[in-house]
Amino acid sequence: MRSARRYYVLHLVFATFGGLALLGSGWVLWHVVEGSPMSANDLLQACRDVIGDALLSSLLVLALLAVLLIATVRALRATARQLVVSRRFVSKGNELDEISLEGVRVRLLDDPRPHAFCAGLLRPRVYLSTGAWAALTPSELRAVLVHEEHHVRQRDPLRLLLAQVASEALFFLPIMRRARRRYADLAEIAADEAAVSSTGGPGPLAAAMLRFDQHAAAGAVGIAPERVDHLFGEHPRWELSASVLAGAGLSLLGILSLAYGTAIAAPPGGLSLSTVSMQVCGLAMVAVPLMAAMWTIRTARRAAPR
Fold this sequence. Notes:
alpha+beta
């Protein structure tokens, strides 16, 4: 009971101080703000003095500028990330020995695990581990090397980089990410076709894929089922539905409509940077206090005991 009474007294104390703070705030407003009534025209003119007459055009400009800035930042970030990874790997790969196997220039990795891949943007190279060289039969090795050589000829690492940057920059088009993943899948299938054609059948490549999958690291993604199905004669599917394509069209239409609306809403002489800056300041004067009040209320609700 004593603790409950103490909490009640504490509650009354804070309520008293809070009430006094509100009364003091009201007294300040009473003496600071002129109490004469304001007509509708005066209210409209006051709003115009804060945000100006070009509110709609400024909002459209800000929205379009935000889209462009976000797209640019995402594209630069994706490009930098991919270039750093590629440069770091290629610099290490330049230290490896390069030999010729089955007419393909190969850089050998000192790794007992069997794996092979293509890396490098402007000058892609085929990388093969010593474990793969020792584990694969001649026909299996040829199938793997032809597969990776196809990636080199098609410059698939560079194409995948460009697809990745485009999907990051065009964030308003979700189809870009699906198309990038689908291109990566189909690039592997196209390389499989080249390997099958060179060895006269799917057997050597299938056996090599099985060896790689058996020695894959824990947690690694296994062979894509679609690649296995394709080796047995099933054709790859498009996998981009009409609804996805329609959504991409609507997204493009939205961006074009935003650009068109910005051009139409702008005044004949155009918008100066000072005008747009004034609009930003005017909106900030309204938005910042509201956001601060919402944050204060939300924080107080979270801190309140339940």
